[in-house]
């Protein structure tokens, strides 16, 4: 009986831990971000995993999935998966709207993990 109880407790705790580490689904981030249109300066002050929408200019591709972004209130790095970048047909200098999550770090600056990005057509 004790072994079965221990197994149930261990399984339950592992499942709870996995759901915490998995983060939010993209559709949840997209829904939340529509309510949180912010500037770079504001985004840098928000807690980790806050869904946001930013509009500004892609300045340059730094490395792999990291791009420098400016909206006039400051600079921040956007982490954009290659499939999103290529699908949107983006290049440095384009004005974009980026939707994603604030990603805070202990030893490096806050960045935004992008789940959707679109070129702004004026």
UniProtKB/TrEMBL annotation:
<dbReference type="Pfam" id="PF04076">
    <property type="entry name" value="BOF"/>
</dbReference>
<keyword id="KW-0732">Signal</keyword>
<feature type="signal peptide">
    <location>
        <begin position="1"/>
        <end position="22"/>
    </location>
</feature>
<protein>
    <submittedName>
        <fullName>NirD/YgiW/YdeI family stress tolerance protein</fullName>
    </submittedName>
</protein>
<dbReference type="InterPro" id="IPR005220">
    <property type="entry name" value="CarO-like"/>
</dbReference>
<dbReference type="InterPro" id="IPR036700">
    <property type="entry name" value="BOBF_sf"/>
</dbReference>
